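Predict structure. Chain length: 187.
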Amino acid sequence: MGDLWLLLSNAIATYAHALFSRFSVELIALEQTDAAFRLGVAAVCGFLVGIEREHASKPAGVRTNVMICVGSALFTLASILAFKNFGEGTDPTRIAAQVVSGVGFLGAGVILKTGFHIVGMTTAATIWLVSAIGVSIGLGFPLLGLFSAVASAITLYVLGKFEFTRWLPHPRVHNAPGNRQKKSETD
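Prediction complete.
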């Protein structure tokens, strides 16, 4: 009975090893296809937002937004794959968390203050948003990323047509020392 059990367990182990080695190649190919699909969706999403920024003649255009979105998705994918390969002791959210702070430095670099005007806030926010879209796609939510990209591109385009600063006076600009109206002697 012991010999039969040993023979049976060896046969099962051999069959399982052959089956696993056959399908592990297909599993790796499937993971790579899924990763390529996610990166492709990230490129499309970055392009959608970037084309609006390019149309508005802003410094961060198509290339920048595509690179940020694809880079964020790639860092997220690398984090997930590292967790799958190395298992315990690794945290798949650590790299994605560092993407947020790294992109914050990129956004800070495009904000400029000249006199009473601050420019680049929308560009910085767009960089941050595109990075978040890339992370969500890298995590496996391509429809969420695509919806976010379309919604943000439409929002940027529509609200870009209405510059609220043209309609609403800013108190600091109108009360600045050079813009104050002189009081008449009768006041």
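Summary: The longest strand covers residues 112-114.
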